[in-house]
Design a protein that fits this description.
By secondary structure, this protein is mostly helical. It is built from 15 helices and three strands. Strands 1-3-2 form a three-stranded antiparallel sheet.
Amino acid sequence: MDDETLFTIGALAARTGLTVKTIRFYSDKGIVPATGHSPAGYRLYDMRALARLELVRTLRELDIDLATVRRILARETSLSEVAAAHADALDVQIRTLRLRRAVLRAVAERESNPQEMDLMHKLVNLSEAERHRLIHDFVDGTFGSVEGNPAVVELLRSSMPDLPADPTTEQVRAWMELVELVQDDDFRAAVRRMAEYQAKERADGDTTGLHHDLTEVVREEVGRAIAAGIVPESAAESVIDGLTSRYAETFDKEDGLPLRRWILERLEVADDSRVTRYWQLVGTINGWPPLPDLEPAFTWFGVALRASLVAER
């Protein structure tokens, strides 16, 4: 055997940066066995053993356990399979660290107490399925067996808040507020009343779904009235006439005082700023563009309708 191609444990330690104790441990475990021994009985290692030791060091630095290292060296499993598995595990760890960072930043900005921090950490670290379950429980608890508008139920279930892997502080705060909102008994009762109203309307023959176009018309028409300085309590009849006409067309109803009373009833049932806040929070969590604030327009419309009905008495 050519001594110039062999290394003592000390020489291996100098070349690899590992300690003599660590190399001896790998040798004793048969992971990097000695190639031979010197006349004095010292272990010697050739270039193949050096390469094997460097591979072991790399694998261990990647936090791969010794049992798996041994299987790789024995070719019982492929390095690519192990690398893929550990890359997936690192993805989970990275996501966890990002979530923790977001929670800590939110805690720092909110000056949270220890109890709130603990709750925030637990809620943020729920799985996607667990987070979705909170929303499904809210929908089940409000609409439940009530035959409300199925399009609304579908919208709620399909527009799930999906906290990203690397959330911003704002998204963490929005998630915390949304969880608090959907678990609020008073808000749930209000949404339940809306569902019951929808059920009553459907029992009376309303088969319409969502009314995005009608909502946009109200926002635009009332927006122009507000910009023009028109006060809802007076001089708003032309705006009301145009809008009630669109409602009559949308719901296939006859225009007139009964329709105006019916529209006002719908507006009053739906008049809850927390519904708007719900969608704003979902939008923040999902990274949607800012949603338009519809409250000023519908509040104006409600006041104008009420004043119009009073004047007709």
